[in-house]
Amino acid sequence: MAQIKIAAIMRAGAFSPNHIGNDASILSTVAEQLRRRGCEVNVYSEEQLNAGAVTEPVVINMCREQRSLRVLEEMQQQGVTVVNAPAGIADCIRERQTRILIVSNIPFPESVITSTDVVIKDELVRRGIDKCWVKRGDNYAMHKEDVSYVRTPDEAQEVLQEYFLRGISRAVITRHVKGDIVKFYGVLGSSFFYWYFPYDPDHFASADPEDTKSIETSLKQLCSNAARELNVMVYGGDAVIDSAGNITLIDFNDWPSFAPCRAAAATAIAKAVMALVKPRRGAKPAVAPGRETSSK
Questions:
Q1: Which of 56, 175, 248, 250 satisfies CB 3.0 to 4.6 Å to 5 for a cystine?
Q2: Is residue 296 pLDDT above 80, yes or no?
Q3: Cα–Cα distances in angstroms (integers) from residue 3 to residues 268, 271, 284, in the given order
Q4: Model-level pTM?
């Protein structure tokens, strides 16, 4: 059988704030796992992708530049298998993500989507929103200030003004949800799912194993539903579990760094990619699990 040729596209450094090394490591580890399965894998930068250097029939990518997504969408339309799909990556931009998850009835905090050149504090007061998060809505986070916690509507207005002065046109303001923060990582369509409490590693040290399993099952189902709605196969993010055990999704990312579970995640991603590309001979282009859409 002819060797499967795969292109692995690294994420541009501007979109890996504080995670350049970790982001590079997970893609390199997945590439190595695919090579062990008999694939020929070539690693490229987003710049090389945009220059037309990528010709492989299968692409795995961590791209986020808008130009890169357009190139990937054109390749997908020409029959190339792309993971994550460019439409899904675009849907993980904060404003799109918020709209999709809320419309899909995924548990998500109350949110106000706004332009940055308006007075929003009165609307926040009307809604009774004080402690909240102001997040860049028109693109992926590129600086730590692109996600800012504030305690009052006045502070939210100040951050919105700062965004406007920085040239950021859109923002999402979400009500702060009280509870325990959970980080999660998954690969849609596989059994792989990793989660933990980043600020309380011993959270379940004395808990009933059945309670822990129940939370894990509910969390994985919630994340799988979100991944399908956002059309991403390789994902990660954050959720909050409140005192009553309710789970609320607060952030969802396309292809995170998988830093605490890189080896297991890389194996799961490689297996999922192989499951997509093995039937390629004589078949129409494979589609990763999720919604079959084109980017908007």
A1: 56
A2: no
A3: 20, 16, 18
A4: 0.89
